Batch of 2 targets.
Target 1
Amino acid sequence: MSILDVYRGPARDLLSTLTDETAPEWRVCFSEDGTDEPTGVAPVCTDEDHDPDDGSVYDCCPEPVIECHSMTTADYVAALLNADRSRS
Ligand SMILES: [Zn+2]
């Protein structure tokens, strides 16, 4: 078992609790870190008035927004979390 496998389950359980969803889909989003790049990840917003191409976070969006401090890291974390969706 890899170290990734060791941490995957508890992280999935925690994020499920925070999002009230078993396996939410994640997106890269603009956080409130003051930069012009999308450096956060958040669950995909399913509000019909929220354009899927709009990376902003509004009142309609589910929490949490997780700050990743760079777009590169945010892309990676979102991809990692979404890859884990198919494993649940
Ligand atoms: Zn939204």
Target 2
Amino acid sequence: MASSIWVLVLAILFISASASVQNKVTDNPADQLVAAINSNRTASKSSSLYSNPGLACIALQYIKAYQGECGAVGGPNAKKPADSEFADTFAPNCGVEISTLTPITGRLLGCQSNYVKPSVAFSEILMKNEKSIEILQSKNHLEVGAAVSGSDGGGPYFWCVLFSNGKSNNSFVLEGHVAKISRPGCFSGSNDDCSGAIALSRTFHLWPIALTGLIVLAYALGI
Ligand SMILES: *[C@@H]1O[C@H](CO)[C@@H](O)[C@H](O)[C@H]1NC(C)=O
Ligand SMILES: *[C@@H]1O[C@H](CO)[C@@H](O)[C@H](O)[C@H]1NC(C)=O
């Protein structure tokens, strides 16, 4: 009896240790995602995109609008925030000047129960189909913003990429030119060393990650 409890304890310790290794993040995963996007674009003879922190902060607000509901990202129950949310909620939360909001020329969104490296999120979550690749390589974009966030208690993890055709110096301009950092979550272009699971999710419990099945949902919109 006592020995089987010890086996159980050891098993829990082992699972916890491997889960925390998998979830360790260095630097800023949203910046790493932008790097993956730009290297794919330049290798495909498209231009490299400006990493706009105001746009990226809005991408994080876009994620927050899902309130951790992975099931609302893709599939039959897919939802998306109303376009009016950009001016009403997302921009004010980021300190982005409303008058500098510029049309979104593409969006990629993915959600998965466990955390993966940005390069894997890029190729295996966000690049699900032809439509996503078309959006990635579109010549209509000039700038990009990416964000990643976990939810309370770890997963699910959401990845969001927004593209725009704005000019770097007059679109998604931040009041005082400073990005408003908020947790949980990380966004690109902000010079924020957003490393570690604590930055990605408010509290960090391992059980939900170990026990939930793999959910992968993604959607891509050209406009
Ligand atoms: C860009 O990414 C897509 C999707 O992962 C892949 O199919 C394609 O081969 C990549 N292109 C280059 C040049 O790496
Ligand atoms: C933005 O940059 C362009 C080209 O670099 C320049 O012509 C334009 O005057 C700049 N606009 C502002 C508002 O600084």
